[in-house]
Write a structure and sequence with these properties.
The longest helix is centred in the N-terminal third of the chain and has 21 residues, at about 95-115. The radius of gyration is 22 Å and the shape is globular. A hairpin with a 4-residue loop joins strand 12 and strand 13 (about 320). The chain is about 40% helix and about 20% strand. It folds into three domains: about 5-135, Arc Repressor Mutant, subunit A (Orthogonal Bundle), CATH 1.10.10; about 150-275, Trna Endonuclease, Chain: A, domain 1, CATH 3.40.1350.10; about 275-330, no CATH class. It is of the alpha/beta class and about 325 residues long. Helix 1 (about 15-20) crosses helix 2 and helix 11 packs parallel to helix 12 (about 245-250). The chain has 14 helices and 14 strands.
Length: about 325
């Protein structure tokens, strides 16, 4: 397989393992990605690239690298939201040649499984194109784009009110939306009680942006200036992404920290509180159980050659399908 037909995410296999070792063998997805960026001193030109959906291309590639390392047995996928090295992963280092071999191995497994299902084959080149535009999270929650599309098509006032409800469901109190344009870019405020003795006044700003639009460093700085003297904490919520410079500005030493909620995190928050979403559970066949129970391990079940650890590639949808997991379907959100 030529290098040009290798998915870009393959180059993060080794750095991802190194980053997890730096973090004590486990870490949150964003934490791991940021450590990779720091270790490799990645420039803004890479970190600010986005997919057609508006999500970060870099974070997407790292997430795909993680998925392949899970299949390879180097990462533990048992705990949602935490990336953890297996015993094998702790001892393994991966160079570029090793990474390409791992990628090629799982492409071959995928093609073999597709053929066993008598489905049209997916070429390596086509798979690369799919992976470079679709994230593993999208594969696991195919309704994520639908939720974002609903949010992006709300009126500005409607999106602010939905964000108000999201903050309320997330533990904020006295949440209110301000009159539009009357408060220097502040869309609302509320109170977050840490314990019976400590609480913070929080202001928030809602950016209902279309895919591909990125919030800049200047916008974060302007929001912080509007926050001074009015609140201890600030939150910017968007249906898009933040530039790397904006993220650095939000966490700048000596200045009040601004919490940033991008499209991916926004979807996670909606799923966590099940706001505007209905949860459904998808069941998949446990092939190994059926094989061992029905056949006592003496013979294989005809037609059951599927590797349950590898996602199916649907030619019609052009994305992996994850089995045996929770899915969320958007319910109609109120339009204001």
């Amino acid at each position: 397989m030529s290098k040009k037909n290798t998915a870009e995410f393959v180059k993060w296999f080794g750095p991802l393992l190194d980053a997890l070792r730096d973090l004590g063998d486990s870490g949150k997805p964003r934490e791991v990605s940021d450590r990779i960026a720091t270790n490799l001193n990645l420039p803004d030109e890479i970190l600010d690239q986005t997919l057609k959906s508006g999500s970060s291309r870099f974070y997407n590639q790292v997430a795909w690298a993680r998925q392949y390392l899970v299949w390879e047995g180097l990462l533990d996928a048992s705990k949602h939201g935490t990336w953890k090295l297996t015993e094998s992963g702790q001892k393994t280092t991966i160079n570029p040649d090793d990474a390409r071999l791992i990628f090629k191995k799982w492409v071959a497994i995928n093609q073999k499984n597709i053929k066993s299902k008598e489905l049209p084959a997916v070429t390596e080149k086509a798979l690369v194109e799919i992976i470079n535009e679709v994230s593993p999270e999208t594969a696991e929650a195919a309704d994520t784009p639908a939720l974002l599309n609903v949010l992006r098509n709300l009126s500005p006032e409607g999106f602010e009110k939905i964000c108000r409800e999201l903050l309320r469901e997330s533990g904020f109190e006295n949440v209110a939306v301000t009159s539009r344009g009357a408060d220097g870019g502040i869309d609302g405020f509320g109170t977050l009680e840490i314990n019976p003795f400590v609480s913070f006044r929080v202001i928030f700003q809602c950016k209902r942006y279309k895919e591909g639009n990125t919030i800049s460093r200047a916008q974060v700085g302007d929001f912080r200036n509007a926050m001074i003297g009015r609140a201890e904490k600030g939150i910017i919520i968007t249906t898009s992404t933040f530039s790397n410079a904006a993220i650095q500005e939000a966490n700048r030493d000596g200045a009040p920290k601004i919490e940033l909620v991008d499209a991916d995190k926004l979807v996670e928050m909606f799923e966590k509180v099940e706001l505007g979403l209905k949860k459904r559970i998808v069941y998949d066949v446990d092939i190994l159980f059926l094989k061992n129970t029905a056949c006592n391990g003496k013979r294989s079940l005809d037609g059951m050659k599927w590797n349950p650890g590898f996602p199916r590639i649907s030619p019609a949808r052009g994305r992996p399908q994850q089995s045996g997991t929770d899915h969320y379907s958007p319910t109609p959100l109120l339009t204001y």
